[in-house]
Specification:
Shape: globular
Number of strands: 11
Structural class: alpha/beta
Helix content: 25-40%
Radius of gyration: 19 Å
Strand content: 5-15%
Bound molecules: NADP nicotinamide-adenine-dinucleotide phosphate, guanosine-5'-diphosphate-beta-L-fucopyranose
Order of helices and strands: EEHEHHEHEEHEEHEEHEHH
Strand order of the largest sheet: 2-1-3-4-5-9
Protein backbone atom coordinates (compact mmCIF):
# COMPACT_ATOMS: atom_id res chain seq x y z
CA UNK A 1 0.00 0.00 0.00
CA UNK A 2 1.39 3.37 -1.07
CA UNK A 3 2.19 5.74 1.82
CA UNK A 4 0.44 9.02 0.95
CA UNK A 5 0.95 12.25 2.93
CA UNK A 6 -2.06 14.59 2.65
CA UNK A 7 -1.10 18.08 3.75
CA UNK A 8 -4.13 20.14 4.81
CA UNK A 9 -5.77 16.87 5.84
CA UNK A 10 -8.13 18.61 8.27
CA UNK A 11 -9.65 20.80 5.56
CA UNK A 12 -12.58 20.36 3.19
CA UNK A 13 -10.59 18.58 0.45
CA UNK A 14 -7.94 16.84 2.57
CA UNK A 15 -10.46 15.32 4.99
CA UNK A 16 -12.46 13.82 2.08
CA UNK A 17 -9.69 11.33 1.19
CA UNK A 18 -10.60 7.83 2.41
CA UNK A 19 -7.07 7.16 3.71
CA UNK A 20 -3.57 8.60 3.93
CA UNK A 21 -1.51 10.41 6.59
CA UNK A 22 -3.47 13.64 7.11
CA UNK A 23 -1.84 16.65 8.73
CA UNK A 24 -3.11 20.02 9.95
CA UNK A 25 -0.99 23.16 10.40
CA UNK A 26 -0.37 22.13 14.01
CA UNK A 27 1.63 18.99 13.14
CA UNK A 28 2.99 20.32 9.88
CA UNK A 29 3.26 24.11 9.54
CA UNK A 30 4.43 24.58 5.96
CA UNK A 31 5.42 28.17 6.69
CA UNK A 32 8.31 26.62 8.69
CA UNK A 33 10.66 24.93 6.21
CA UNK A 34 13.09 23.24 8.63
CA UNK A 35 10.42 21.73 10.87
CA UNK A 36 8.40 20.59 7.83
CA UNK A 37 11.48 19.01 6.20
CA UNK A 38 12.27 16.94 9.30
CA UNK A 39 8.60 15.96 9.78
CA UNK A 40 8.20 14.73 6.18
CA UNK A 41 11.65 13.04 6.18
CA UNK A 42 10.52 10.97 9.18
CA UNK A 43 7.31 9.94 7.41
CA UNK A 44 9.10 9.27 4.10
CA UNK A 45 5.92 9.10 1.99
CA UNK A 46 5.74 7.64 -1.53
CA UNK A 47 3.35 10.43 -2.60
CA UNK A 48 2.30 13.86 -1.39
CA UNK A 49 -1.17 15.30 -2.04
CA UNK A 50 -0.72 18.92 -1.11
CA UNK A 51 -4.06 20.39 0.07
CA UNK A 52 -2.64 22.95 2.53
CA UNK A 53 -3.34 26.55 1.61
CA UNK A 54 -4.83 29.79 2.84
CA UNK A 55 -8.31 29.46 1.29
CA UNK A 56 -11.49 31.50 1.42
CA UNK A 57 -14.49 32.85 -0.39
CA UNK A 58 -14.82 35.95 -2.49
CA UNK A 59 -15.09 38.38 0.45
CA UNK A 60 -12.17 36.96 2.49
CA UNK A 61 -10.07 37.23 -0.68
CA UNK A 62 -11.07 40.84 -1.37
CA UNK A 63 -10.03 41.87 2.15
CA UNK A 64 -6.70 39.99 2.45
CA UNK A 65 -4.78 40.01 -0.90
CA UNK A 66 -1.29 40.31 0.66
CA UNK A 67 -1.82 37.48 3.18
CA UNK A 68 -3.28 35.19 0.53
CA UNK A 69 -0.24 35.87 -1.70
CA UNK A 70 2.44 35.57 1.00
CA UNK A 71 1.17 32.46 2.77
CA UNK A 72 0.37 30.50 -0.36
CA UNK A 73 3.65 31.37 -2.09
CA UNK A 74 5.58 30.30 1.06
CA UNK A 75 3.68 27.04 1.66
CA UNK A 76 3.89 26.00 -1.98
CA UNK A 77 7.60 26.82 -2.28
CA UNK A 78 8.45 24.96 0.92
CA UNK A 79 6.54 21.77 0.14
CA UNK A 80 7.90 21.60 -3.42
CA UNK A 81 11.50 22.09 -2.23
CA UNK A 82 11.02 19.41 0.44
CA UNK A 83 9.45 16.95 -2.03
CA UNK A 84 12.34 17.44 -4.47
CA UNK A 85 15.04 17.25 -1.79
CA UNK A 86 13.54 14.08 -0.28
CA UNK A 87 13.08 12.57 -3.78
CA UNK A 88 9.33 12.01 -3.23
CA UNK A 89 8.12 10.08 -6.27
CA UNK A 90 4.62 11.50 -6.74
CA UNK A 91 3.16 14.94 -6.01
CA UNK A 92 -0.24 16.54 -6.66
CA UNK A 93 -0.76 20.25 -5.98
CA UNK A 94 -3.97 22.33 -6.23
CA UNK A 95 -4.71 25.39 -8.32
CA UNK A 96 -8.28 26.69 -8.80
CA UNK A 97 -10.57 27.72 -11.67
CA UNK A 98 -10.89 31.16 -10.07
CA UNK A 99 -7.29 31.96 -11.08
CA UNK A 100 -8.02 31.95 -14.83
CA UNK A 101 -8.12 35.27 -16.74
CA UNK A 102 -11.34 37.13 -16.00
CA UNK A 103 -12.41 38.18 -19.49
CA UNK A 104 -11.76 35.12 -21.64
CA UNK A 105 -15.39 34.90 -22.85
CA UNK A 106 -15.05 31.17 -23.52
CA UNK A 107 -14.92 28.06 -21.33
CA UNK A 108 -11.50 27.86 -19.59
CA UNK A 109 -8.94 25.36 -20.89
CA UNK A 110 -5.67 24.48 -19.15
CA UNK A 111 -3.51 26.44 -21.63
CA UNK A 112 -5.45 29.67 -20.91
CA UNK A 113 -4.10 29.97 -17.36
CA UNK A 114 -1.71 32.91 -17.96
CA UNK A 115 -3.48 34.63 -20.87
CA UNK A 116 -4.55 37.69 -18.93
CA UNK A 117 -5.08 39.10 -15.43
CA UNK A 118 -7.32 37.22 -12.98
CA UNK A 119 -10.50 38.75 -11.55
CA UNK A 120 -9.47 41.60 -9.25
CA UNK A 121 -11.40 40.10 -6.30
CA UNK A 122 -8.76 37.44 -5.63
CA UNK A 123 -5.54 38.52 -7.39
CA UNK A 124 -3.36 37.75 -4.35
CA UNK A 125 -4.48 34.12 -4.22
CA UNK A 126 -4.63 33.79 -8.02
CA UNK A 127 -1.06 34.98 -8.67
CA UNK A 128 0.29 32.80 -5.86
CA UNK A 129 -1.39 29.78 -7.47
CA UNK A 130 -0.21 30.76 -10.94
CA UNK A 131 3.37 30.92 -9.63
CA UNK A 132 2.89 27.40 -8.29
CA UNK A 133 2.03 26.30 -11.84
CA UNK A 134 5.29 27.91 -13.04
CA UNK A 135 7.32 26.44 -10.16
CA UNK A 136 6.07 22.86 -10.71
CA UNK A 137 6.89 23.14 -14.43
CA UNK A 138 10.40 24.42 -13.65
CA UNK A 139 11.06 21.69 -11.05
CA UNK A 140 9.87 18.99 -13.48
CA UNK A 141 12.17 20.29 -16.21
CA UNK A 142 15.29 20.93 -14.11
CA UNK A 143 15.05 17.93 -11.77
CA UNK A 144 13.40 15.35 -14.05
CA UNK A 145 10.25 15.13 -11.90
CA UNK A 146 6.69 14.21 -12.85
CA UNK A 147 4.73 16.37 -10.40
CA UNK A 148 1.42 17.96 -11.47
CA UNK A 149 -1.35 20.30 -10.33
CA UNK A 150 -5.09 19.76 -10.56
CA UNK A 151 -7.35 22.77 -11.20
CA UNK A 152 -10.59 22.13 -9.30
CA UNK A 153 -13.68 24.27 -9.67
CA UNK A 154 -15.51 25.46 -6.51
CA UNK A 155 -15.46 22.58 -4.00
CA UNK A 156 -18.13 21.89 -1.39
CA UNK A 157 -18.91 19.10 1.05
CA UNK A 158 -18.85 18.00 4.67
CA UNK A 159 -16.23 19.51 7.02
CA UNK A 160 -16.10 22.73 4.99
CA UNK A 161 -15.52 26.18 6.50
CA UNK A 162 -19.05 27.42 7.37
CA UNK A 163 -17.96 30.81 8.75
CA UNK A 164 -20.46 33.43 7.54
CA UNK A 165 -17.78 35.98 6.55
CA UNK A 166 -14.88 33.88 5.20
CA UNK A 167 -16.62 30.87 3.65
CA UNK A 168 -17.53 30.03 0.06
CA UNK A 169 -21.12 30.39 -1.10
CA UNK A 170 -22.49 26.88 -0.42
CA UNK A 171 -21.40 26.56 3.23
CA UNK A 172 -22.21 30.26 3.78
CA UNK A 173 -25.79 29.81 2.54
CA UNK A 174 -26.30 26.50 4.39
CA UNK A 175 -25.28 28.21 7.64
CA UNK A 176 -27.41 31.30 6.90
CA UNK A 177 -30.50 29.16 6.22
CA UNK A 178 -29.86 27.21 9.46
CA UNK A 179 -29.86 30.52 11.40
CA UNK A 180 -32.84 31.99 9.48
CA UNK A 181 -34.91 28.89 10.33
CA UNK A 182 -33.85 29.04 13.98
CA UNK A 183 -34.43 32.80 14.36
CA UNK A 184 -37.43 32.99 11.98
CA UNK A 185 -35.72 35.68 9.86
CA UNK A 186 -35.26 36.18 6.11
CA UNK A 187 -32.34 34.67 4.20
CA UNK A 188 -29.95 37.35 2.89
CA UNK A 189 -28.09 36.26 -0.25
CA UNK A 190 -25.06 38.36 -1.28
CA UNK A 191 -25.04 39.78 -4.82
CA UNK A 192 -27.74 39.61 -7.50
CA UNK A 193 -27.80 35.83 -7.94
CA UNK A 194 -27.01 36.08 -11.66
CA UNK A 195 -23.45 34.79 -11.25
CA UNK A 196 -22.90 31.21 -12.40
CA UNK A 197 -20.60 28.63 -10.83
CA UNK A 198 -19.57 25.03 -11.32
CA UNK A 199 -19.32 22.97 -8.13
CA UNK A 200 -17.61 19.67 -7.33
CA UNK A 201 -18.45 17.51 -4.30
CA UNK A 202 -15.25 17.07 -2.22
CA UNK A 203 -15.46 13.25 -2.26
CA UNK A 204 -15.50 13.32 -6.09
CA UNK A 205 -12.38 15.49 -6.14
CA UNK A 206 -10.42 13.17 -3.85
CA UNK A 207 -11.51 10.08 -5.81
CA UNK A 208 -10.34 11.74 -9.04
CA UNK A 209 -6.97 12.71 -7.46
CA UNK A 210 -6.35 9.09 -6.37
CA UNK A 211 -7.26 7.81 -9.86
CA UNK A 212 -4.98 10.40 -11.50
CA UNK A 213 -2.10 9.25 -9.26
CA UNK A 214 -2.41 5.85 -10.96
CA UNK A 215 -3.42 6.81 -14.48
CA UNK A 216 -2.14 10.30 -15.36
CA UNK A 217 1.27 10.12 -17.11
CA UNK A 218 1.60 13.77 -18.06
CA UNK A 219 2.67 16.61 -15.76
CA UNK A 220 0.67 19.52 -17.15
CA UNK A 221 -2.19 20.90 -15.01
CA UNK A 222 -5.66 19.35 -15.40
CA UNK A 223 -9.09 20.95 -14.84
CA UNK A 224 -11.28 18.91 -12.47
CA UNK A 225 -14.95 19.78 -12.89
CA UNK A 226 -18.16 18.41 -14.38
CA UNK A 227 -18.26 21.69 -16.37
CA UNK A 228 -21.98 21.97 -15.44
CA UNK A 229 -22.85 25.54 -14.36
CA UNK A 230 -25.65 26.61 -12.02
CA UNK A 231 -26.71 30.19 -11.23
CA UNK A 232 -26.45 31.37 -7.64
CA UNK A 233 -30.22 32.01 -7.79
CA UNK A 234 -30.92 28.36 -8.71
CA UNK A 235 -28.42 27.22 -6.07
CA UNK A 236 -30.31 29.23 -3.44
CA UNK A 237 -33.58 27.56 -4.52
CA UNK A 238 -31.99 24.11 -4.10
CA UNK A 239 -30.58 24.87 -0.63
CA UNK A 240 -33.87 26.46 0.50
CA UNK A 241 -35.83 23.46 -0.77
CA UNK A 242 -33.56 20.79 0.75
CA UNK A 243 -33.43 22.72 4.06
CA UNK A 244 -37.23 23.07 4.02
CA UNK A 245 -36.88 26.82 4.64
CA UNK A 246 -40.16 28.72 4.35
CA UNK A 247 -38.97 32.29 5.08
CA UNK A 248 -38.23 35.17 2.73
CA UNK A 249 -35.17 35.32 0.42
CA UNK A 250 -33.56 38.72 -0.17
CA UNK A 251 -30.75 39.39 -2.70
CA UNK A 252 -28.43 42.13 -1.36
CA UNK A 253 -27.26 43.76 -4.60
CA UNK A 254 -24.89 46.08 -2.72
CA UNK A 255 -22.61 43.03 -2.38
CA UNK A 256 -20.26 41.94 -5.19
CA UNK A 257 -21.10 39.02 -7.49
CA UNK A 258 -17.38 38.45 -8.11
CA UNK A 259 -16.73 36.73 -11.44
CA UNK A 260 -19.98 36.40 -13.41
CA UNK A 261 -18.94 33.02 -14.76
CA UNK A 262 -16.02 30.55 -14.42
CA UNK A 263 -17.15 28.00 -17.02
CA UNK A 264 -14.62 25.26 -17.87
CA UNK A 265 -13.90 22.78 -20.66
CA UNK A 266 -13.19 19.42 -18.96
CA UNK A 267 -12.26 17.50 -22.14
CA UNK A 268 -8.79 16.61 -20.81
CA UNK A 269 -10.24 15.02 -17.63
CA UNK A 270 -12.93 13.17 -19.58
CA UNK A 271 -10.27 11.75 -21.89
CA UNK A 272 -8.33 10.29 -18.94
CA UNK A 273 -11.31 9.25 -16.78
CA UNK A 274 -14.17 8.77 -19.30
CA UNK A 275 -16.21 6.62 -16.87
CA UNK A 276 -16.15 9.00 -13.90
CA UNK A 277 -19.65 9.84 -12.61
CA UNK A 278 -19.91 13.16 -10.73
CA UNK A 279 -22.20 13.37 -7.69
CA UNK A 280 -25.35 15.30 -8.72
CA UNK A 281 -25.45 18.63 -6.85
CA UNK A 282 -28.82 17.78 -5.27
CA UNK A 283 -27.26 14.68 -3.64
CA UNK A 284 -24.08 16.47 -2.58
CA UNK A 285 -26.06 19.34 -1.07
CA UNK A 286 -28.34 16.92 0.82
CA UNK A 287 -25.29 15.10 2.29
CA UNK A 288 -23.63 18.43 3.23
CA UNK A 289 -26.77 19.97 4.77
CA UNK A 290 -27.55 16.82 6.79
CA UNK A 291 -23.94 16.69 8.01
CA UNK A 292 -24.02 20.36 9.04
CA UNK A 293 -27.30 20.05 10.97
CA UNK A 294 -26.05 16.88 12.73
CA UNK A 295 -22.59 18.36 13.50
CA UNK A 296 -23.42 22.01 14.12
CA UNK A 297 -21.47 22.19 17.40
CA UNK A 298 -18.18 20.91 15.93
CA UNK A 299 -18.44 22.41 12.42
CA UNK A 300 -15.86 25.09 11.45
CA UNK A 301 -17.94 28.30 11.68
P1 LIG B 1 -9.52 24.45 3.80
O1 LIG B 1 -10.75 23.67 4.09
O2 LIG B 1 -9.42 25.87 4.20
O3 LIG B 1 -8.27 23.65 4.44
C1 LIG B 1 -7.01 24.24 4.39
C2 LIG B 1 -6.04 23.28 5.01
O4 LIG B 1 -4.75 23.87 4.94
C3 LIG B 1 -6.35 22.98 6.47
O5 LIG B 1 -6.13 21.62 6.75
C4 LIG B 1 -5.33 23.84 7.20
O6 LIG B 1 -4.92 23.30 8.44
C5 LIG B 1 -4.18 23.78 6.23
N1 LIG B 1 -3.24 24.87 6.47
C6 LIG B 1 -3.52 26.19 6.64
N2 LIG B 1 -2.37 26.86 6.90
C7 LIG B 1 -1.36 25.93 6.91
C8 LIG B 1 0.03 25.99 7.15
N3 LIG B 1 0.65 27.14 7.45
N4 LIG B 1 0.75 24.85 7.07
C9 LIG B 1 0.13 23.67 6.78
N5 LIG B 1 -1.20 23.54 6.55
C10 LIG B 1 -1.92 24.67 6.63
O7 LIG B 1 -9.16 24.40 2.25
P2 LIG B 1 -9.73 23.43 1.11
O8 LIG B 1 -10.99 23.99 0.57
O9 LIG B 1 -9.70 22.03 1.62
O10 LIG B 1 -8.60 23.62 -0.04
C11 LIG B 1 -7.66 22.61 -0.27
C12 LIG B 1 -6.92 22.96 -1.56
O11 LIG B 1 -7.85 23.02 -2.64
C13 LIG B 1 -6.25 24.34 -1.51
O12 LIG B 1 -5.02 24.30 -2.20
C14 LIG B 1 -7.24 25.22 -2.26
O13 LIG B 1 -6.58 26.34 -2.86
C15 LIG B 1 -7.74 24.27 -3.30
N6 LIG B 1 -9.06 24.64 -3.87
C16 LIG B 1 -10.14 24.79 -3.03
C17 LIG B 1 -11.37 25.15 -3.59
C18 LIG B 1 -12.61 25.34 -2.74
O14 LIG B 1 -13.65 25.74 -3.30
N7 LIG B 1 -12.57 25.05 -1.46
C19 LIG B 1 -11.49 25.34 -4.98
C20 LIG B 1 -10.35 25.14 -5.78
C21 LIG B 1 -9.14 24.79 -5.21
P3 LIG B 1 -5.62 23.82 9.82
O15 LIG B 1 -6.83 22.97 9.95
O16 LIG B 1 -4.60 23.54 10.88
O17 LIG B 1 -5.92 25.28 9.64
O1 LIG C 1 -18.18 31.08 -3.25
P1 LIG C 1 -17.78 32.51 -3.39
O2 LIG C 1 -17.45 33.28 -2.15
O3 LIG C 1 -16.49 32.52 -4.31
O4 LIG C 1 -18.94 33.34 -4.17
P2 LIG C 1 -16.19 32.78 -5.82
C1 LIG C 1 -19.63 32.75 -5.23
C2 LIG C 1 -20.85 33.60 -5.57
O5 LIG C 1 -21.84 33.42 -4.52
C3 LIG C 1 -20.60 35.12 -5.64
C4 LIG C 1 -22.37 34.68 -4.14
O6 LIG C 1 -21.35 35.62 -6.72
C5 LIG C 1 -21.19 35.62 -4.32
O7 LIG C 1 -21.65 36.96 -4.42
N1 LIG C 1 -22.89 34.61 -2.76
C6 LIG C 1 -24.19 34.78 -2.41
C7 LIG C 1 -22.19 34.34 -1.65
N2 LIG C 1 -24.35 34.65 -1.09
C8 LIG C 1 -23.11 34.36 -0.58
C9 LIG C 1 -22.64 34.10 0.73
O8 LIG C 1 -23.39 34.09 1.71
N3 LIG C 1 -21.32 33.81 0.86
C10 LIG C 1 -20.46 33.80 -0.20
N4 LIG C 1 -19.15 33.49 0.00
N5 LIG C 1 -20.87 34.07 -1.48
C11 LIG C 1 -13.77 32.20 -4.98
C12 LIG C 1 -12.36 32.78 -4.96
O9 LIG C 1 -14.59 33.00 -5.80
O10 LIG C 1 -13.73 30.88 -5.55
C13 LIG C 1 -11.47 31.93 -4.12
O11 LIG C 1 -12.40 34.11 -4.48
C14 LIG C 1 -11.62 30.44 -4.36
O12 LIG C 1 -10.12 32.31 -4.35
C15 LIG C 1 -13.04 30.00 -4.68
O13 LIG C 1 -10.76 29.99 -5.35
C16 LIG C 1 -13.08 28.61 -5.29
O14 LIG C 1 -16.50 31.55 -6.58
O15 LIG C 1 -16.78 34.06 -6.29
Amino acid sequence: MKKILITGGTGLVGSSFPNGIKTSSKELDLLNYNHSYEFIKNINPDSIIHCSAMVGGLYKNMNNPAEFFDKNISMNSNILKIAKNLKIKQFIGFLSTCIFPDNLNKPFEEDDLHLGPPHNSNYGYAYAKRMFDVQVKAYNEQFGLNYFNVIPTNVYGINDNFNLESSHVIPGLIHKVYLAKKNKTDLIVWGSGIAKREFIFSEDLSKICLELLEKYNDNSPIIVSSSQEISIKDLVDLIVDISNFKGGVIFDKTKSDGQITKNTNNTKLKTILPEFQFTPIEIGLEKTINWFYNNYERARK
